[in-house]
């Protein structure tokens, strides 16, 4: 019987240079493209005060969100999901009325944004006013 001779340590070497080149090229590509991405957000700054007085012939529908996140439409308690129905009912009688959302500092932003989006989606003029809690 013949013995098989074992050959020396033949190890396959993998050249990593081309792979590293590709990784660095991809890294540079993602860094360059990521710097041009701009995310949109909701501007939470209040608008500057207008010099003209509001027209008193158009009544304002007051939507309040208090510090416990309770919602009121013209002093009547309601759910954040029912604000649009309450506002639409009032606007049926007074179609030129606008909505003023009065928000306490401690109110959840999600509630305010939901109400704002509903008004804008239904082409109802809306503005936001911040209510000072008096603490300080």
Tell me what you see in this structure.
- This protein has a five-stranded mixed sheet with strand order 3-2-1-4-5, with helices on one face.
- The model has no long low-confidence stretch (mean pLDDT 82).
- It is built from three helices and five strands.
- The chain is an alpha/beta fold.
- The longest helix is centred in the first third of the chain and has 18 residues.
- The protein has a domain of 72 residues: Nucleotidyltransferase, domain 5 (2-Layer Sandwich).
- Helices cover 31% and strands 18% of the residues.
- The protein is elongated, with a radius of gyration of 31 Å.
- Strand 4, helix 3 and strand 5 form a beta-alpha-beta unit.
Task: Describe the protein's topology.
Blueprint: H1 17-34, E1 60-65, E2 71-73, E3 76-78, H2 83-93, E4 98-104, H3 109-121, E5 126-131
């Amino acid at each position: 019987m013949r013995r098989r001779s074992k050959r020396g340590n033949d190890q396959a070497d993998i050249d990593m240079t081309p792979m590293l080149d590709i990784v660095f090229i991809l890294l540079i590509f993602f860094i360059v493209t990521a710097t041009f991405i701009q995310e949109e957000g909701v501007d939470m700054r209040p608008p500057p005060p207008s010099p003209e007085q509001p027209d008193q012939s158009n009544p304002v529908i007051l939507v309040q969100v208090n510090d416990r996140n309770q919602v009121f439409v013209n002093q009547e308690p309601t759910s954040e999901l029912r604000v649009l129905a309450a506002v639409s009912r009032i606007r049926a009688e007074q179609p030129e009325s606008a909505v003023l959302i009065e928000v306490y500092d401690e109110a959840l932003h999600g509630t305010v944004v939901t109400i704002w989006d509903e008004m804008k989606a239904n082409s109802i003029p809306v503005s936001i006013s911040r209510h000072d809690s008096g603490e300080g």
